[in-house]
Amino acid sequence: MEKFENEFETEEKEIIVLLKDSCNGALVFDKKWLIPSVNFLASIDNNTGKVVSEEGLLEWIIENNPHRKGWGYDFKQFGIYRLLVRKCFPKELAPYQSALMNNRYLLVKILEEDVQNEKLIELQMRLLKPVKIDTPYGKLELDRSMSWFEAEIECCGHIFTAFLETDEENGEKADSAYKVFLKTLNGFEEFDKKMKDYAAQNLLDSANEWLESEEGREDEHEPITKEKFIENIEISEIAVSPDGSMTLYYSDGEMFWGHSIDISVDEDGTISDVGISG
Question: What is the pTM of this model?
Answer without folding.
Answer: 0.81
